[in-house]
Amino acid sequence: MTHTLPDKIALVTGGGQGLGAAICLSLAQAGCHVAVADLNEQTCADTAGLVQRETGRKAIAIKVDVTQEDQVAAMVDHVVSEFGQLDIVVANAGILISGDVVDFPADKWAAVMNVNLFGYFLTAKHAARVMRPRKQGVIIQINSKSGKKGSLRNSAYAASKFGGIGLTQSIALDLAEDGIRVNAICPGNLLDSPLWNDPERGLFVQYLRAGKVPGAKTIEDVRQAYINQVPMKRGCTYDDVAGAVLYLASDAARYITGIALSVTGGQEMN
To answer: How many Å apart are CA 249 and CA 2, to the nearest integer?
Structure first.
């Protein structure tokens, strides 16, 4: 295998499962050694083990709550202590809670902002702290198409993602002279992922209960409604997003910073 990111050191928050785990594996397949960070210690260790078995790259697991600055600082220091440097950070940790604005519990609204926006800020802050002296590095936020267009009964998530794009652009300006590139990726709907399919907490169930899709009576109705919105007539996949991560992390994107790249099959084009 030709490695496009040979021996780079990558850190992925929210890397224990789902999209985060897929990104960890793709980075390792591209030649990176990977630090898998997640609030769930078991899934974090499982992903690190999978990366090592599948790719032969070194992987470590770090339990972290991205809303706690002392833990985020310690996470970054752990990576540098273990590997000697930090080249790529993917800020993927996030949560989604949907609801109508009138009924939305304030504490849950704040929790979404805290993880998705404040957690990204802390991750970028401490990544930049160790990248700046080396005058190189890449920071990538996993954002959402909801960061570019408002989302019905999804105000907390959309607000956090709109904020994430503004934060990405601002940090990109802060760090441009240091040779550190900062970009966001805005995936479409990952319809085949546990985020959507979990029978108790998945978005299909949440959106059906919240009445987010007018006229929908079943989960399949909700799914088809989302497929119908995509010009390419399919949901976004982990590979679609991982491919964008690899591109933005590579030298091929060496003159790209401050963008929010839509990966939506044409559903969002700006």
So the answer is: 16
Q: Does residue 157 have an active-site annotation?
A: yes
- The closest alpha carbon to 141, from 190, 96, 92, belongs to 92
- One domain for residues 82 and 209: no
User: Is 1 domain-assigned?
Assistant: no
**pTM exceeds cut of 0.90:** yes
Could you tell me which residues come within 8 angstroms of residue 4 by beta carbon, excluding any fewer than 6 positions away?
Answer: 30, 31, 246, 250
* 213-249 pLDDT, tens digit each: 999 999 999 999 999 999 999 999 999 999 999 999 9
Which listed residue (120, 157, 207, 238) is catalytic? Answer: 157
* Residue 269 in domain: no
Residue range of the domain that includes 203: 191-229
Same domain, 165 and 91: yes
CB atoms within 10 A of CB 42: 12
